[in-house]
Amino acid sequence: MSLGRTFLDVRPLRTSPLFRRLLIGRTVSTLGNFMTMVTVMFQVWDMTHSAVWSGAVGLAQALPMIGFGLFAGAWVDRVDRRRVYLLGTIGQAACSLLLAVQGLTGHVPVAVVLGLVAAQSSFGAVGAPAAGVFVPRLLPKDQVAAGLALNQVTGQAMMLLGPAVAGVVLGWWGIGVCYLLDALSFGVSFYGAFGLPALPPEGEKSRPGLHGVLDGLRFLTGHRVMRGALLTDLAATVLAMPASLFPLVNAERFGGDPRTLGLFLSALAVGGVAATAFSGPVTRLARPGPVMLCASATWGVALALFGLMTNAWVGLGMLVLAGAADAVAVLSRTTIVQTRTPDALLGRVTAAETIVGQAGPHLGNLRAGVVAGWASAATALVTGGLLCLLAVVGVGVTTPELRRGGGTEESAASGGTASEQDSSPPAAKPGDASASPATGTDGSPTTAAAGP
């Protein structure tokens, strides 16, 4: 294999000017998002000095995504996705502007800040399913994984850069300017998507309301590859999420040195960036199923070994390995979702994937904390990693379609399994407004950042 094929596949940047512009907009907006995340946590702590209120920031961000996501996905699968994305971007920018105003003009009740955070997250819940259709509509099938990898590596880079930039801006100019810069970043994201053509669903539109949501869930539960991919992600996040254990591990093993704790938090991101930078062979392989299973199993094993380490540098090596495995697993899962889902269902499936990504880590951190309180941080890490490994093996054994490949070529050659063919949403009744087919379009655009 040539050296050039080892690095990140950049063909989408050369072949699609639209994708290039959208990637720039998404990258700038993601930088602003991470700046706001840090600023909100700083402001809420400064206002309250309460761990409870600080914890409420995470709830304000996650609950709207979980509560509105599936219904937003059903709406996205009925209308022009480009317009929905632009609407979500405008709403998020408006919330950032209001946060900037309250930051520049003086103190407001902390509940107002959290309300604005929740409103911004609600607009994000609308925009994320719309953005989920852009890459597969814009790029040829053999470049979708490469496009997703480019989205992922830029998102990870902004995750490293955003908090540092926020710290500098907070120190020099204060919270209001930090929020204002985030609002301006949404303008770049808006520009990236504004010139796109209309992007209505290709195929049968979603039925309105709860019926459309249930159709999407029926597809997910009936499609064995998709179900296996989401179950694998849940196994990795719920059973082996380590972040909440880092302070306790640092205290138990390494004397509570804050420098070591900071390195723990950075090691996962470093591994993710490195793995994505060398993802060329993975994205060209076109076998995301076994790659995802192997990467998820590696994540569990690496975290279990981290729980046994007494040497800080060896432990950091295990975290770098875990971060790399997580990045490959996320990339493979997203490739499966975006290449195996019919366009007419992609908004709902993307919404479900986003909810899994939001809820799984929160549940995983809760599980880890409970086990660590009952035993120790090492016990929580080792048992969680081993349970993750067993769950991934179980998914692989019971889902041969995922184990054999999980890519588009296999599905096209076989016509899909019977269970997959039967999982399409039911046809709308004659005369129903949802029965009118969508008009196919050419081209399209951007993305959503992946999480652990």
Automatic annotation (TrEMBL):
Compartments (UniProt record): Cell inner membrane
Entry membrane topology: Multi-pass membrane protein
Chain spans, region Disordered: 400-452
TM region positions: 21-45, 51-72, 148-173, 228-249, 261-279, 291-314, 371-397
Compositionally biased tracts (Low complexity): 409-420
SUPFAM superfamilies named among the record's database cross-references: MFS general substrate transporter
Bias type Polar residues, positions: 436-452
Keyword Cell membrane appears in the UniProt entry: yes
UniProt KW keywords: Cell membrane, Membrane, Transmembrane, Transmembrane helix, Transport
Keyword presence, Cell inner membrane: no
Recorded GO CC terms: plasma membrane
Protein name: MFS transporter
